[in-house]
Design brief:
Blueprint (H helix, E strand, L loop, with lengths): L18 E7 L6 H12 L3 H14 L1 E8 H18 L4 E6 L2
Antiparallel strand pairs: 1-2, 1-3
Helix pairs in contact: 1-2
The protein binds L-tyrosinamide (TYC).
């Protein structure tokens, strides 16, 4: 009818990003030192923290290396898989939604 109408947005406009964890998997062949260096390099951990994460993966079969937005997590997986492939190690890394 020509009258201007302002629609009030009552619901939340911006949702927080759905976070994804980058999980590294154990295998029998990738050297421990390689895993420690990869965790330091791509997940910005100090050597001590990287060593703890590596040992956790070695003992439990898997471990979380970091939590990121979906895009960043996917890039981390790509970087790890690329480094492992180039070095000839079977190291596997996946991204999964948190919770
Ligand atoms: N299990 C490997 C070994 O004994 C070490 C290892 C740790 C491999 C973590 C992969 O994600 C991994 N050499």
């Amino acid at each position: 009818n020509g009258d201007s109408v302002v629609l009030e947005r009552r619901t939340q406009k911006v949702k927080p990003p759905h976070m994804h964890q980058v999980v590294m998997l154990n295998d029998d062949y990738t050297p421990m030192e390689f895993v420690v260096v990869v965790i330091q390099e791509f997940f910005n951990k100090d050597r001590e923290t990287a060593t703890q994460i590596m040992l956790k993966i070695h003992l439990d079969g898997r471990g979380v290396c970091g939590v990121y937005s979906r895009d960043v997590a996917a890039t981390k997986v790509d970087q790890v898989m690329d480094a492992a492939n180039k070095a000839g190690h079977p190291l596997q890394c996946i991204s999964e939604p948190v919770e």
